[in-house]
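Hi! If you just cloned this repository, the fastest way to understand the data is to look at a raw example. We've pasted two of them here, unedited. The first protein comes first, obviously.
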Amino acid sequence: MAAHLITILLLTTIHHSAGDERSSLLSFLAGLAPHSVLSLTDWNTSPNLCNWTGVSCHHLPPWQRVAKLDLSGRNIHGKLSPFLSNLSSLEVLDLSNNFLTGPIPAELGSLSGLKQLSLSSNLFSGTIPFQLGFLNLLVYLDLGGNQLTGQIPSTLFCNYSRSTINQLSLQYIDLSNNSLTGEIPLPSNDLCLLDDLRYLLLWSNQLSGSIPPALSNSSQLEWIDFESNNLSGGLPLYIFNNMPYLQFLSLSFNNLSTDDLNPFFTSLSNCSGLQELELAGNGLRGELPPSIGDLSVNLLQLHLEQNQITGPIHPNISNLVNLTYLNLSNNVFNGSIPPEISRLCRLERFYLSNNRLTGKIPPSFGKILQLGLLDVSDNELSGSIPDSFAHLPQFRRLLLNGNRLSGQIPPSLGNCINLEILDLSYNQLTGEIPPEIAGLQSLKLYLNLSNNNLHGHLPLEMSKMDMILALDLSCNNLSGMIPSQIGSCVALEYLNLSKNSFVGHLPSSIGALPYLKVLDLSSNKLAGAMPESLEASSTLRYLNVSFNNFSGVIPGDGVFKSLGGSSFFGNPWLCGYNIDGITECRTEPDHRLGRLIRISLSVSGAVIVLVIMFFIACQMMMRRRSSSPKVRLPSFSRSVFEDMDSMEDFVSNYHDYPRLSYQQLVEATNGFADTNLIGSGRFGRVYKGNLRTSTKIAVKVLDQMLDCSATQLTDSFKRECEVLKRTKHRNLIKIVTACSRPDFKALVLPLMPNGSLERWLYQTKPVDLSLELVVRLLSDVAEGMAYLHHYSPVRVVHCDLKPSNVLLDGDMTALVADFGIARLVKGVGDGGASGELQSLASCISTSGLLHGSVGYIAPEYGLGGHPSTQGDVYSFGVLLLEMITGTRPTDIVVHEGHNLHEWVKNHYPNNIESIIPTDLTLNLPSLAQHDPFYHNKLKRTVISELVELGLVCTQYSPSMRPTMIDVAHEMAILKQDISRLVVVDSSPTLPDSSSDC
């Protein structure tokens, strides 16, 4: 207590001796990085500080004293000055969503009138000052999304030095997404009361110990989020008895345990406002008790996955009639699925995978009309697939794989016109593939019927699946010829027909599929030569034709150059050149030329012989010349990027690329003048330049003045060069050359005439904002990211996808740029989807912890998780939602506890138009004039498609997000659909307004 009193006296002394408020604000300004000052220029020019950017003053006594300092989302860098503590009348201090570093000044504890302190989403480090507990009037405290360490000071919840009994006014505490350790320091007595506390958010830290019983004293709590910590002990039994206003309770991914769930669920029965209950990823055991049905009828989401809950699914769960999300996967449930589950009439997503469920699939599922996803995979279910699935108009994903289902595939599934994924693999299904299933045009992602007992021919209706991405029919008894009509599945990337009984020639139309990457035809009875279209394919990466009856010479170009003998084994009439295990082709002598010579000799005599011999000699000389090895110049990328540490001036050695010295860059940018500055980023600034050849360039200079080590700068430079040298794609920025000296490092890039997407969204708009352009730009970004994740020679995780890192060329084509914190990875298959990645370069920021930029960072990174392709998908989803709503992710009101995903989700679908900019139009002028109803319907459809994709990409769980291949495919289809609409609009005939969209 004495130490606290000394601190108070010290803080008071500083307050009275530091000078006036103007000098305090200017001292704060002086601590910021130089480029941050550019956004606060009026602080040095306007005489009235009450007119300064972000500053608001009292309009009542004390006159002209600063009441509010709000600089959130201003892109300011630097350290937080302790002299802000001199703003004695300050009530609101909001510096969130910036790049402030260093410790939080303890002097802020002297701001006795402060009601709101928001320092979230910065780069603050060190411990939380215990002096913040002296802020008697504080209502709102948000320190989330930083790099704070150490224990939570007990003074935040109880300051014993103030009075004998303290009733704290705090209503909102957010310390989430840091690296805090120790126990949650809620007092265990009644000396300190948190009666007004409504939000307590501590997720994504390293907190340990049990959930404190004193939490029960805060009866006004609405949101408790302790997810992703190291909390242990049993589930609390009586803490939540007296919380009638509790809406969100998240305890997932801790080390909590129990053998009896009944007391806990009973304690929650009084929480009548509960909407979400998350208990996933703990050590919960025992059976699901009848009290599960006593939870709030307002419950919308229930997460019990990844535990060890046993026994049957209690039918009382059907009392939760407003559930939209129910996840019971990855447990040890047994018994049958209760038919009462059909009472959950609002259920949209239902996960039961990886359990031990038996019995039949209840036909009553057909009564849940809102059901969009059903996953009962990897159980022991038997019987037939019910016809009642056909009654589900919203059905998008049906996963029944890994069971013991038998009988035929019901043709009625063809009535599920919105079905995107159908997986019936690893069952005991029989019969033929119904034409109604083969003709489902809605299948966008994949159809998997593998490992069953299906027979018969492939239906010709399969040609209607022109949007399907993957098709797996392997390990069945299918027969007949492969129809050439399968070439109409133009979006197909993965095709597996192996281990069947297909005969005949392989249609050339399969090799001509424009996006095909994987083709497995092994273990069939196919014959004939390899179609030339396979060799000509520019996308095919994997081919297996082993154990067939193919004949002829194995081609030597295209995908065949990278294939080994295992791709061709078991074809006795195939031969090749230099392929291990494959018969070498023999060159038969050509007797026709000899016969020709003999006939010519007998007819034309010696003169003709001489002519022929001369002709043969010429031909032989030409053959020798053409067969001699060609001289190949070494590639630019290898020579340029070989040894970066040993270079002084890093330039190209080939005429295709300019040799640029440091002095030439200085000349081109007018000495790196501020007038040529076009942007700044995490590691430096970008200048526009003009070479003597009139070539316009952009020079990215790494800032040597940043608060980071030379090693970090060098690593960033190397990392970006490593990415740029290995990647080549129309939607990725290309490098011109680079320059590296001990005191200077720069990348030289083509100058993008339309700047960055950031500038286009929020500053100047060179073209009208339209849905067509938004879709086209997003499609470009998705294509570039899909290449980085899945097709680049070395897979790349970007780590920092955001609008300022997307550049626009003269044709408004989007190019992904800025790989300063990218991570190069080696992986199996699609480079990272499996999670088995080997790091070649760490994905870190200047701080060494934060994988990206505030607002775009995937939530799992806050757990110390490794950067992944799923994290990039999350960033893309944020970018998509930002473009469609015109709202920065950092601008969402944090008082409501929302991020951009939650904010959009709360408005979708019924109120989505209220958050969409009015100038976001579908550019179909004639259609809008003649049939505005149909035009608006089309617009709503496009917006809905985009919003749904954005919400899927930004789901909290990485495993539930799609891959960038899926995303790029969806965007390509949407772009194609819009292009068709524009063509229709330009034609004289308008579409029938009565038809469905």
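Ok, and the second one:
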Amino acid sequence: MSIQSDIAQIEEQEQEQVWSAMHNKLCKQAVQVHKFGGSSLASVECINRAVDIIQVNCKLDDVVVVSANGDTTDELLHIYELAVVQSDKLHHEISQVKDRQTKLISSLLKTVHAHSLIALLEHDIALLVKWLQVDINAHYSELLALGELWSARLLSAILNERVCPSNAIDARDFLVINNEEQCAVDYDLSQRQLALLREPSKLAVITGFVARNEQGLPCTLGRNGSDYSATILAALTAAQNVTLWTDVDGIYSADPRVVPNARKLHRVPRGVAKELGRLGNPVLHAKTLQPLNDCGSHLHVASSFDANTAGTEIGDFGQIAKQELSVTHLNDLLLAQSVSFLGDVGKQAAKEFSAIGVDVAKGQIVIQQSQQLAVSQWLASHDTEVRFTPVAIIAVVGHNVAQRGNVKVRFKRSLRAQQLIAILTSERQHSFIAVIPQPCTTELLNNVHHDVTKDARHIGLVIAGAGNIGQRFIELLPSQVAKVPALENLHLVGIASSKRILLNTDGLDVESSFEQFEQHSKSYQQDDLLNWLTHHPYDELVVVDITPSKAFSELYQPFFERGIHVIGANKWAASSSTANYNKLLQSAKEHDSLWLGNTTVGAGLPINFAIDDLIASGDEIEEISGIFSGTLSWLFENYDGQQPFDVLLKQALADGITEPDPRDDLSGLDVQRKLLILARLAGFELALEDIDCQNLVPASLQALSVEQFLDNAEQLNDYFEKQLAQAVQQKSCIRYVARFSNTKAGVKAKVSLETLPQTDAFASLTPCDNIFKIVSSWYQDNPLIIRGPGAGRDVTAGGLHSDLVNVCNQLAKKAHQVKLKGINE
């Protein structure tokens, strides 16, 4: 046996193991249908992306539905048109199509596999030429079906070569419809025939767009036929989900090609989706959604060009999804008016012609221009006349929107400068439809979209930290939402502690959220949280970190990579290593994420804001100093020598003024971190080790347990007695002070116990107060002083709310980036 044979055998065995593992692990899961549009299969690069998506998202029992590659269907249609007029360009165009398909095959498959596919292609081309010579009209549907057939064969061959066992199935061999006009599926017969064609442990790759009629003749499913094929397959296989992989990353509140500020709709209720499809949405079509009515499958729209970006899901959702609004339009319509359209006969006519809108009180229906002849013939049987008027429609669509009077008021106000023929309500109450006598312009569509959806941006809020401050933050939320317009569309969707989490996509009731957390929260790992945050259905997501956790702060990087905004009282990230801090800043910038941390220093005091504002205004910071610890402020304001320092310390511990381990305060590390954060905010590249830090805990007490430390805390007394006595002798006081300065000699930073004159700004504070002094180019002889409570439940929660309002105001002005490769295939 040759070396090549040995290698081939080993590769075959390894591939079999991969296939076996894939089958054993995944085939028990519910069936998924994945459909790839023509633009998603248009080139070698596109097809390779699709293969990667299949490898990550599919299992062997799934179904893949394909459109023709790129513009192949248009090219075949052009060949038909050239044949009808007997153009001398016909054979050249056929040769071009053959060459393009051959290049795709040769570029994507190994030579041995490519040969067999090219041979099949040449057979099809010969058959095509024969059809053109005999009776082209009799083979019209077969000609158009070639694109899907070639696409399915090629993708299946690639999967067999690279990923898993696969078989290509021609939908004409199982899918039966009544006719091309109605496209009603014979589900029982189609399901039985499909079952005979699917091969166990093979991924089925099925042609979209094509079928056979009841007479057994090949036919097509018409516009958006491949999407319709995908949802039909979902009904035939009882699929859990259908994903339409296309060239746009979801469904938008308007056509993003025309309305740049259109918002992605992450979740769309079924009824709303159907109405959007009926009224001109460029991605959805009503026919596509019909098969899902009974089978209950969820439909996803996602971009094959950016598979990691969450798309749009269509299904059954709660109130937040039902609040969404969209604006759509259709031009080139006709308003048909006749006495036969009054009352019940008008309802019958509307159903017969799938009317865009109907007013049976006025005898009016809105139809497609292509239906004019059919409507005239239908009315001839009623012996009545009809008047046709060219019109267009613009519609606002949303769940039960007809019952939302404020939306109708906004809609009518946005159209006040337009001549209106009528405003109609759809039968299912999911739309208001304005009929206008002229085409809907880009300007009108943008204006109406702005007026109707301007307050519809939804922001999800996740609170990490379920302690006192977290509870107070949530207690303040209802009144804040009522007072601050920027918070109008803010939704509390998650609460997390260090070990447990409660997430609800449709939002938590704020008033009872902590009771819900106590009753329904579950244990979690960080990956669980990241997975949910990756696929959240909101326009923006804000995480408020009220934890002291270093581990949680390490999630900031993946948060920013997902475009999530962070408000942090947590000091770990902002005081981490210079390399990590700079990486976080860069990541937040690259992914358009906001990172605010006003409460990392000074609780609710606006020290971060003041420094940021001075720097943004062109000022230059020269010095930052002050008393940054509320605990140390309380201790040294109250320490007068009348009682030993350890007694005062234990009193502060009992009153909750210190950390559970008072050494966390006495070490100075907290103050050191705060000074680092402010210096960095002022524009200086500093590391923690660049700040000298005096630890007030003697070495003999640093390694003990908390209990042992407290039992031996009297060892602190001699040092503080001496420091206080010296200060009193000088008519001064002792304070733990942070100082940063930038001079010609360089940068200096230190936190330590200092002796200060009684006249010093830092000498006389209300216990627990913080004080910050800033010297800058603008504040020289009279430095800027900010003073107030530096700790506390209310002020910290208030500071977090200040950051939240700031974030929401910035997000309201944020330019929306539409990820758009094109719309239709």
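That's it. A detail worth noticing about the second one: The longest strand covers residues 326-337.
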